[in-house]
Write a structure and sequence with these properties.
356 residues; alpha/beta; TIM Barrel; 2 domains; six-stranded parallel beta sheet; three-stranded parallel beta sheet; 15 helices; 46% helix; 12% strand; binds 5'-deoxyadenosine; binds FE2/S2 (inorganic) cluster
Length: 356
Protein backbone atom coordinates (compact mmCIF):
# COMPACT_ATOMS: atom_id res chain seq x y z
CA UNK A 1 0.00 0.00 0.00
CA UNK A 2 0.97 3.59 -0.60
CA UNK A 3 3.15 4.63 2.39
CA UNK A 4 1.48 7.97 2.71
CA UNK A 5 -1.97 6.38 3.02
CA UNK A 6 -0.69 3.93 5.61
CA UNK A 7 0.79 6.86 7.52
CA UNK A 8 -2.54 8.71 7.44
CA UNK A 9 -4.52 5.64 8.47
CA UNK A 10 -2.15 4.99 11.39
CA UNK A 11 -2.33 8.61 12.42
CA UNK A 12 -6.11 8.51 12.36
CA UNK A 13 -6.05 5.32 14.41
CA UNK A 14 -3.71 6.81 17.00
CA UNK A 15 -5.08 10.34 17.27
CA UNK A 16 -8.72 9.97 16.17
CA UNK A 17 -8.35 13.06 14.05
CA UNK A 18 -6.86 14.32 10.82
CA UNK A 19 -6.88 17.76 9.30
CA UNK A 20 -8.87 18.71 6.24
CA UNK A 21 -6.20 18.09 3.67
CA UNK A 22 -5.28 14.74 5.20
CA UNK A 23 -8.89 13.58 5.19
CA UNK A 24 -9.15 14.69 1.59
CA UNK A 25 -6.07 12.70 0.69
CA UNK A 26 -7.37 9.61 2.45
CA UNK A 27 -10.57 9.87 0.44
CA UNK A 28 -9.08 10.70 -2.93
CA UNK A 29 -6.36 8.04 -2.73
CA UNK A 30 -8.75 5.28 -1.78
CA UNK A 31 -7.70 1.84 -3.02
CA UNK A 32 -8.83 -1.64 -2.15
CA UNK A 33 -5.77 -2.12 0.03
CA UNK A 34 -6.32 1.17 1.81
CA UNK A 35 -9.92 0.16 2.50
CA UNK A 36 -8.82 -3.21 3.81
CA UNK A 37 -6.28 -1.60 6.10
CA UNK A 38 -8.67 1.04 7.45
CA UNK A 39 -11.32 -1.59 7.96
CA UNK A 40 -8.92 -3.67 10.07
CA UNK A 41 -8.07 -0.71 12.25
CA UNK A 42 -11.73 0.27 12.58
CA UNK A 43 -12.71 -3.26 13.55
CA UNK A 44 -10.01 -3.35 16.19
CA UNK A 45 -11.25 -0.08 17.70
CA UNK A 46 -14.87 -1.21 17.56
CA UNK A 47 -14.07 -4.51 19.25
CA UNK A 48 -12.04 -2.82 21.99
CA UNK A 49 -15.16 -0.88 22.99
CA UNK A 50 -18.17 -2.96 22.01
CA UNK A 51 -16.59 -6.40 21.70
CA UNK A 52 -18.39 -8.53 19.19
CA UNK A 53 -21.82 -7.25 20.25
CA UNK A 54 -24.22 -5.84 17.72
CA UNK A 55 -27.13 -3.72 18.91
CA UNK A 56 -30.63 -3.99 17.53
CA UNK A 57 -32.98 -1.10 16.83
CA UNK A 58 -36.52 -1.91 15.82
CA UNK A 59 -37.62 0.52 13.15
CA UNK A 60 -41.30 1.42 13.11
CA UNK A 61 -42.16 3.48 10.03
CA UNK A 62 -45.35 4.93 11.39
CA UNK A 63 -46.27 7.56 8.78
CA UNK A 64 -45.23 8.28 5.23
CA UNK A 65 -47.05 11.61 5.03
CA UNK A 66 -44.49 14.37 4.65
CA UNK A 67 -44.84 18.11 4.31
CA UNK A 68 -41.37 18.39 2.85
CA UNK A 69 -40.21 17.98 -0.71
CA UNK A 70 -36.59 16.83 -0.54
CA UNK A 71 -35.46 16.12 -4.09
CA UNK A 72 -34.00 12.70 -3.25
CA UNK A 73 -36.78 11.20 -1.16
CA UNK A 74 -39.51 8.87 -2.36
CA UNK A 75 -42.05 10.05 0.21
CA UNK A 76 -41.67 13.75 -0.67
CA UNK A 77 -44.98 15.59 -0.79
CA UNK A 78 -44.91 16.03 -4.57
CA UNK A 79 -44.82 12.30 -5.20
CA UNK A 80 -48.46 11.72 -6.06
CA UNK A 81 -47.89 8.04 -6.76
CA UNK A 82 -46.94 7.40 -3.14
CA UNK A 83 -49.86 5.82 -1.33
CA UNK A 84 -50.00 7.47 2.08
CA UNK A 85 -50.61 5.78 5.44
CA UNK A 86 -50.50 6.44 9.15
CA UNK A 87 -50.33 3.86 11.91
CA UNK A 88 -52.68 4.34 14.85
CA UNK A 89 -51.33 4.37 18.38
CA UNK A 90 -52.65 0.81 18.79
CA UNK A 91 -50.83 -0.35 15.68
CA UNK A 92 -47.60 1.24 16.88
CA UNK A 93 -47.98 -0.45 20.27
CA UNK A 94 -48.64 -3.75 18.53
CA UNK A 95 -45.31 -3.36 16.68
CA UNK A 96 -43.59 -2.72 20.02
CA UNK A 97 -45.20 -5.82 21.51
CA UNK A 98 -43.95 -8.01 18.67
CA UNK A 99 -40.58 -6.32 18.87
CA UNK A 100 -40.24 -6.76 22.60
CA UNK A 101 -40.97 -10.48 22.29
CA UNK A 102 -38.30 -10.69 19.61
CA UNK A 103 -35.71 -9.13 21.92
CA UNK A 104 -35.79 -5.54 20.79
CA UNK A 105 -35.03 -3.02 23.55
CA UNK A 106 -34.99 0.07 21.36
CA UNK A 107 -37.88 1.27 19.25
CA UNK A 108 -37.24 3.85 16.58
CA UNK A 109 -40.34 5.73 15.56
CA UNK A 110 -39.57 7.08 12.13
CA UNK A 111 -41.81 9.03 9.84
CA UNK A 112 -42.11 11.83 7.38
CA UNK A 113 -42.73 15.31 8.75
CA UNK A 114 -46.41 14.73 9.29
CA UNK A 115 -48.32 17.59 10.95
CA UNK A 116 -50.95 15.12 12.16
CA UNK A 117 -48.49 14.09 14.85
CA UNK A 118 -48.75 17.16 17.01
CA UNK A 119 -46.71 17.33 20.21
CA UNK A 120 -49.76 16.13 22.09
CA UNK A 121 -50.25 13.03 19.94
CA UNK A 122 -46.56 12.25 19.73
CA UNK A 123 -46.00 12.67 23.49
CA UNK A 124 -48.95 10.40 24.25
CA UNK A 125 -47.43 7.65 22.08
CA UNK A 126 -44.00 8.02 23.64
CA UNK A 127 -45.45 7.97 27.16
CA UNK A 128 -47.46 4.86 26.48
CA UNK A 129 -44.48 2.97 25.05
CA UNK A 130 -42.30 3.98 28.01
CA UNK A 131 -45.02 2.91 30.46
CA UNK A 132 -45.52 -0.47 28.86
CA UNK A 133 -41.84 -1.12 28.16
CA UNK A 134 -39.83 0.66 30.85
CA UNK A 135 -36.77 -1.41 29.97
CA UNK A 136 -36.72 0.01 26.44
CA UNK A 137 -35.29 3.11 24.83
CA UNK A 138 -37.49 5.18 22.55
CA UNK A 139 -35.81 6.87 19.61
CA UNK A 140 -37.62 9.43 17.51
CA UNK A 141 -36.85 10.20 13.89
CA UNK A 142 -39.52 12.65 12.85
CA UNK A 143 -37.53 15.50 11.39
CA UNK A 144 -37.27 19.17 12.17
CA UNK A 145 -39.37 20.56 15.01
CA UNK A 146 -39.14 23.50 17.38
CA UNK A 147 -36.94 23.39 20.45
CA UNK A 148 -40.10 23.49 22.57
CA UNK A 149 -41.45 20.47 20.78
CA UNK A 150 -38.20 18.55 21.27
CA UNK A 151 -38.28 19.50 24.96
CA UNK A 152 -41.83 18.19 25.38
CA UNK A 153 -41.01 14.92 23.64
CA UNK A 154 -37.96 14.50 25.82
CA UNK A 155 -40.08 15.09 28.90
CA UNK A 156 -42.55 12.51 27.67
CA UNK A 157 -39.70 10.01 27.79
CA UNK A 158 -37.98 9.98 24.40
CA UNK A 159 -34.35 8.96 24.92
CA UNK A 160 -32.80 9.45 21.52
CA UNK A 161 -33.31 11.31 18.28
CA UNK A 162 -32.10 10.58 14.77
CA UNK A 163 -31.86 13.51 12.40
CA UNK A 164 -29.38 13.14 9.59
CA UNK A 165 -27.76 16.46 8.84
CA UNK A 166 -27.74 15.29 5.16
CA UNK A 167 -24.79 17.54 4.27
CA UNK A 168 -22.85 20.04 6.35
CA UNK A 169 -22.19 22.29 3.37
CA UNK A 170 -24.97 24.90 2.99
CA UNK A 171 -24.39 25.18 -0.77
CA UNK A 172 -24.67 21.45 -1.26
CA UNK A 173 -27.67 21.43 1.06
CA UNK A 174 -29.42 23.90 -1.22
CA UNK A 175 -28.85 21.66 -4.24
CA UNK A 176 -30.69 18.69 -2.79
CA UNK A 177 -33.46 20.49 -0.89
CA UNK A 178 -36.08 23.06 -1.81
CA UNK A 179 -35.44 26.57 -0.55
CA UNK A 180 -37.86 26.31 2.39
CA UNK A 181 -35.38 23.95 4.06
CA UNK A 182 -32.03 25.12 5.30
CA UNK A 183 -28.81 23.66 6.55
CA UNK A 184 -28.89 26.27 9.27
CA UNK A 185 -32.19 25.10 10.73
CA UNK A 186 -31.10 21.48 10.47
CA UNK A 187 -28.03 22.29 12.55
CA UNK A 188 -30.14 24.30 15.00
CA UNK A 189 -32.30 21.20 15.51
CA UNK A 190 -29.28 19.00 16.14
CA UNK A 191 -27.82 21.38 18.69
CA UNK A 192 -31.17 21.76 20.48
CA UNK A 193 -31.57 17.99 20.65
CA UNK A 194 -28.16 17.56 22.17
CA UNK A 195 -28.67 20.33 24.70
CA UNK A 196 -31.97 18.76 25.74
CA UNK A 197 -30.16 15.58 26.69
CA UNK A 198 -31.08 13.29 23.84
CA UNK A 199 -28.60 10.74 22.54
CA UNK A 200 -28.39 12.17 19.04
CA UNK A 201 -27.71 10.65 15.65
CA UNK A 202 -26.73 12.67 12.60
CA UNK A 203 -25.54 11.43 9.24
CA UNK A 204 -25.61 11.77 5.48
CA UNK A 205 -26.08 9.92 2.23
CA UNK A 206 -22.96 8.75 0.45
CA UNK A 207 -22.94 9.74 -3.21
CA UNK A 208 -25.91 12.07 -2.96
CA UNK A 209 -26.35 14.19 -6.09
CA UNK A 210 -23.70 16.92 -6.51
CA UNK A 211 -21.75 15.68 -3.49
CA UNK A 212 -17.99 16.20 -3.85
CA UNK A 213 -15.16 14.68 -1.82
CA UNK A 214 -14.72 18.13 -0.39
CA UNK A 215 -18.33 18.02 0.87
CA UNK A 216 -17.63 14.67 2.51
CA UNK A 217 -14.59 16.12 4.27
CA UNK A 218 -16.87 18.87 5.59
CA UNK A 219 -19.31 16.20 6.81
CA UNK A 220 -16.51 14.35 8.58
CA UNK A 221 -15.26 17.53 10.21
CA UNK A 222 -18.77 18.39 11.32
CA UNK A 223 -19.23 14.90 12.79
CA UNK A 224 -15.92 15.09 14.62
CA UNK A 225 -16.80 18.46 16.08
CA UNK A 226 -20.46 17.76 16.91
CA UNK A 227 -19.70 14.39 18.54
CA UNK A 228 -23.04 12.69 17.93
CA UNK A 229 -23.79 9.45 19.77
CA UNK A 230 -24.76 7.81 16.50
CA UNK A 231 -23.93 8.37 12.84
CA UNK A 232 -26.20 6.97 10.14
CA UNK A 233 -24.72 6.78 6.68
CA UNK A 234 -25.90 4.87 3.66
CA UNK A 235 -25.58 5.17 -0.09
CA UNK A 236 -27.93 7.49 -1.95
CA UNK A 237 -30.23 5.34 -4.08
CA UNK A 238 -32.40 7.00 -6.72
CA UNK A 239 -36.17 6.79 -6.46
CA UNK A 240 -37.97 6.68 -9.80
CA UNK A 241 -40.61 9.28 -8.90
CA UNK A 242 -38.25 12.04 -7.72
CA UNK A 243 -36.27 14.76 -9.51
CA UNK A 244 -33.14 12.67 -8.86
CA UNK A 245 -34.47 9.53 -10.56
CA UNK A 246 -31.63 9.53 -13.11
CA UNK A 247 -28.80 10.27 -10.72
CA UNK A 248 -26.29 7.52 -10.00
CA UNK A 249 -26.41 5.67 -6.70
CA UNK A 250 -23.66 5.94 -4.10
CA UNK A 251 -21.27 3.02 -3.95
CA UNK A 252 -20.79 0.22 -1.49
CA UNK A 253 -17.04 0.80 -1.50
CA UNK A 254 -17.11 4.46 -0.54
CA UNK A 255 -19.82 3.88 2.09
CA UNK A 256 -17.88 1.11 3.76
CA UNK A 257 -14.67 3.16 3.63
CA UNK A 258 -16.46 6.04 5.33
CA UNK A 259 -17.84 3.75 8.02
CA UNK A 260 -14.25 2.86 8.90
CA UNK A 261 -13.15 6.48 8.92
CA UNK A 262 -16.06 7.50 11.14
CA UNK A 263 -15.31 4.64 13.55
CA UNK A 264 -11.72 5.87 13.81
CA UNK A 265 -12.74 9.52 14.21
CA UNK A 266 -15.23 8.72 17.00
CA UNK A 267 -14.21 5.36 18.50
CA UNK A 268 -17.27 4.91 20.71
CA UNK A 269 -19.89 6.06 18.22
CA UNK A 270 -22.92 3.89 17.46
CA UNK A 271 -22.71 3.09 13.79
CA UNK A 272 -25.51 1.27 11.96
CA UNK A 273 -25.05 -0.94 8.94
CA UNK A 274 -28.05 0.56 7.19
CA UNK A 275 -30.86 -0.86 5.09
CA UNK A 276 -29.68 1.24 2.13
CA UNK A 277 -26.28 -0.47 2.37
CA UNK A 278 -28.08 -3.83 2.35
CA UNK A 279 -30.04 -2.66 -0.68
CA UNK A 280 -27.11 -1.83 -2.97
CA UNK A 281 -25.30 -5.09 -2.19
CA UNK A 282 -26.65 -8.44 -0.96
CA UNK A 283 -24.03 -8.53 1.79
CA UNK A 284 -23.77 -4.79 2.28
CA UNK A 285 -24.72 -4.83 5.95
CA UNK A 286 -22.29 -7.64 6.73
CA UNK A 287 -19.52 -5.70 4.98
CA UNK A 288 -20.54 -2.65 6.97
CA UNK A 289 -20.19 -4.59 10.23
CA UNK A 290 -16.75 -5.77 9.16
CA UNK A 291 -15.75 -2.16 8.46
CA UNK A 292 -16.66 -0.89 11.95
CA UNK A 293 -20.45 -0.74 12.18
CA UNK A 294 -22.04 -2.11 15.36
CA UNK A 295 -25.79 -1.55 15.02
CA UNK A 296 -28.50 -3.04 12.80
CA UNK A 297 -32.00 -1.66 12.44
CA UNK A 298 -34.44 -4.26 11.23
CA UNK A 299 -37.90 -3.26 10.20
CA UNK A 300 -40.72 -3.73 12.71
CA UNK A 301 -43.40 -2.05 10.62
CA UNK A 302 -46.51 -4.06 9.77
CA UNK A 303 -45.95 -5.96 6.52
CA UNK A 304 -48.87 -4.30 4.74
CA UNK A 305 -47.37 -0.79 4.95
CA UNK A 306 -43.75 -1.62 4.25
CA UNK A 307 -43.92 -1.18 0.50
CA UNK A 308 -45.34 2.28 1.03
CA UNK A 309 -42.35 3.53 2.99
CA UNK A 310 -40.15 3.65 -0.09
CA UNK A 311 -37.54 6.33 0.39
CA UNK A 312 -35.63 4.84 -2.57
CA UNK A 313 -36.14 2.08 -5.14
CA UNK A 314 -35.69 -1.64 -4.42
CA UNK A 315 -35.62 -1.22 -0.65
CA UNK A 316 -35.05 -4.61 0.99
CA UNK A 317 -37.13 -6.29 3.70
CA UNK A 318 -40.42 -4.92 2.41
CA UNK A 319 -42.05 -8.33 2.14
CA UNK A 320 -40.91 -9.83 5.39
CA UNK A 321 -42.46 -10.21 8.82
CA UNK A 322 -40.62 -8.70 11.79
CA UNK A 323 -39.67 -12.15 13.02
CA UNK A 324 -38.18 -13.06 9.63
CA UNK A 325 -36.06 -9.89 9.54
CA UNK A 326 -34.89 -10.58 13.07
CA UNK A 327 -33.85 -14.14 12.19
CA UNK A 328 -32.35 -13.11 8.88
CA UNK A 329 -30.23 -10.46 10.56
CA UNK A 330 -29.21 -12.83 13.31
CA UNK A 331 -27.80 -15.17 10.67
CA UNK A 332 -26.12 -12.36 8.81
CA UNK A 333 -24.51 -10.94 11.94
CA UNK A 334 -23.29 -14.37 13.01
CA UNK A 335 -21.90 -15.06 9.53
CA UNK A 336 -19.28 -12.38 10.17
CA UNK A 337 -18.47 -13.52 13.71
CA UNK A 338 -20.60 -11.09 15.68
CA UNK A 339 -23.68 -11.56 17.87
CA UNK A 340 -26.88 -9.64 18.38
CA UNK A 341 -27.45 -8.73 22.02
CA UNK A 342 -30.75 -8.13 23.81
CA UNK A 343 -30.00 -4.74 25.30
CA UNK A 344 -30.91 -1.09 24.93
CA UNK A 345 -27.49 -0.67 23.41
CA UNK A 346 -26.72 2.70 24.92
CA UNK A 347 -23.75 4.73 23.87
CA UNK A 348 -20.67 3.57 25.77
CA UNK A 349 -18.76 6.84 25.90
CA UNK A 350 -19.83 8.06 29.31
CA UNK A 351 -19.57 4.75 31.18
CA UNK A 352 -16.13 4.35 29.73
CA UNK A 353 -15.14 7.74 31.04
CA UNK A 354 -16.37 6.85 34.51
CA UNK A 355 -14.44 3.61 34.67
CA UNK A 356 -11.37 5.04 33.00
N1 LIG B 1 -31.49 7.11 -0.92
C1 LIG B 1 -30.87 6.84 0.25
N2 LIG B 1 -31.25 7.37 1.42
C2 LIG B 1 -32.30 8.21 1.42
N3 LIG B 1 -32.88 8.88 2.42
C3 LIG B 1 -33.92 9.58 1.91
N4 LIG B 1 -34.01 9.36 0.59
C4 LIG B 1 -33.01 8.52 0.25
C5 LIG B 1 -32.55 7.95 -0.96
N5 LIG B 1 -33.16 8.20 -2.12
C6 LIG B 1 -32.34 8.92 3.77
C7 LIG B 1 -32.13 10.36 4.23
C8 LIG B 1 -33.02 10.45 5.44
C9 LIG B 1 -33.17 9.03 5.88
C10 LIG B 1 -34.37 8.74 6.71
O1 LIG B 1 -33.22 8.31 4.67
O2 LIG B 1 -30.76 10.56 4.60
O3 LIG B 1 -32.50 11.26 6.48
FE1 LIG C 1 -35.21 -8.13 6.71
FE2 LIG C 1 -33.19 -9.89 5.98
S1 LIG C 1 -33.16 -8.26 7.40
S2 LIG C 1 -35.34 -9.92 5.48
Amino acid sequence: MNNRIKYLADKLYERHTLDRSELYELLSERTEEAAEYLSRLAREVRESIYGRDVYLRGLIEFTNYCKNDCYYCGIRRSNRSCERYRLSEEQILECCKTGHELGFRTFVLQGGEDPYYTDERMCAIVREIKTRYPDCAVTLSVGERSRESYAKLREAGADRYLLRHETADPEHYAKIHPSELSCENRMRCLRDLKELGYQVGCGFMVGSPYQTLDNIVTDLEFIKEFKPHMVGIGPFIPHHATPFSDMPAGTLELTVYLLSIIRLLLPDVLLPATTALGTIHPRGRELGLLAGANVVMPNLSPTDVRKKYMLYDNKICTGDEAAECRRCLERRVESVGYRIVVSRGDWRGETRNITA
